[in-house]
Specification:
The structure is a homodimer. With about 260 residues, chain A is α/β, with parallel strands linked by helices. Chain A has 2 domains: about 170 residues, SPOUT methyltransferase, trefoil knot domain (Alpha/beta knot); about 70 residues, Orthogonal Bundle (Helicase, Ruva Protein, domain 3), CATH 1.10.8. The longest helix of chain A has 30 residues. Chains A and B meet through α1, α8, α10 and α11 of A and α1, α8, α10 and α11 of B.
């Protein structure tokens, strides 16, 4: 039940100063948990350390992992960030920082882990990485050049998180949190989505060039709901049942074609 | 009557990268007017230019003056920034960024000029400089280390200004309102849920006494997501496809049973 349960994930950061400045603003805002996914700049670079002012301990305790899914496996809520506004399907679940923070604070308050995910400097999160996120945060900016510096984007998101956190603390001074709907772990959700995707491909709901964006839309709308472990089981069961029908259909089809 | 009438004033900036990153985030947020008071780092430094990405024009047009009073002489509203919380007199007019932005927007809207003033990296604004400011903005941060990096503090203040600006534009009927995710009409959602239920009964995912509560769970989790019209169409399509498989399966089954 603290801001420490919100981790900051930088995917392939390439500029040392951005890692350092991220550590500093995490310290400013009361966060401690930094994860780097395949970093292209070092935690021990002189620039990293120089810009971390008072955030050195956060750098010392930072985790380095190979893939985004390793960084967020146990998270109930994964928020990506993106300046890109293109892509019809992607646009649906784009939220402003201030809009989503109450939800993030509620998860943290319920003892859940959550992650704020920032893409690489040059081109942000890939479509594949975006698909892994429950929501996509876009910082309101000028259309003529909406791409923020990485460390400044981190600062704005953590500032909004801190604001949301302080609103909650002011409303509820030190009270234990009320009962909350538990959210399934990211890894369990991910496994279910993989089963669902296979099933929907088997019945040719997903096929051709649009398959990816359709699956993306389904992931997003289900992710937005904040699935409980039981709901993840229900959807797994649904995927199995659809799959069974598709397989059975194939067998019957083969059988009927072999008949004279 | 535009964001251009809000200038950003950096007092004795000493780190070139901070000047560059300030220009970039000004460009991001739609501001153009940068003033440096006795800068200790150069507008033409390699680091300044490197971090300004797309904000070069702002650097080219930046003014350099000797004293803060020269920078803000024609301003109707001067907002200083400070992480320091001490000082009796100073404390009186300390505000959070979100608190003061409606006021700043109102001044700009009325055609007035205004300034956001940021002190030097090492120790912020002097008492003398603070006295020149109408209000002093403090960004909420952790007591253990509330001093933000200069360029990140600029980013947060300009982000709040932009938000305040967009709220005003949205409220003003003469302006196009900001983009929002539309939610599908209840009746359309209901029609889709009926199709989905039929399809799931057809593949025997729903059957027996538990069918009703399972369908209820699905409705509930999808409803929670706040489905868009497009998502309702996607789910309708999915229901049709599942239904097709179930019907086709039945036909094939009947066919195979009729075979000797």
């Amino acid at each position: 039940m603290s801001l420490h349960h919100c981790r900051v994930v930088l995917v392939q950061p390439t500029i040392a100063g951005n890692i350092g400045a991220t550590a500093r603003v995490m310290r400013n805002m009361g966060l401690t948990n930094l994860v780097l996914v395949s970093p292209q700049a070092s935690l021990d670079d002189r620039q990293t350390r120089q810009l971390a002012t008072h955030g050195e301990e956060i750098l010392d305790r930072a985790r380095v992992v190979d893939r985004l899914s390793d960084a967020v496996a146990d998270c109930a809520l994964v928020l990506g960030t993106s300046a890109r506004r293109g892509g019809l399907l992607r646009r649906q679940s784009v939220v402003a920082p201030a809009e989503i923070m109450p939800r993030l604070v509620a998860e943290l308050r319920a003892g859940q882990s959550a992650a704020l995910v920032f893409g690489t400097e040059a081109h942000g999160l890939t479509d594949e990485e975006v698909t892994r996120c429950h929501f996509l945060i876009t910082i309101p900016a000028d259309d003529s050049y909406p791409v923020l510096n990485l460390a400044q984007a981190v600062a704005i998101c953590l500032y909004e998180l801190r604001k949301g956190w302080e609103v909650w603390e002011a409303d509820d001074p030190g009270q234990p949190s009320c009962e909350r709907r538990p959210v399934a772990a990211f890894a369990d959700q991910d496994r279910m989505f993989a089963q669902l995707e296979q099933a929907l491909r088997a019945i040719h709901f997903l096929y051709g060039p649009k398959a990816e964006s359709l699956m993306h839309a389904l992931r997003h709308l289900l992710g937005r709901a904040g699935l409980t472990p039981m709901e993840v089981d229900v959807l797994s069961g649904l995927a199995r049942q659809i799959r069974w029908y598709a397989d059975h259909n194939k067998q019957l089809q083969a059988l009927s074609e072999n008949q004279p």
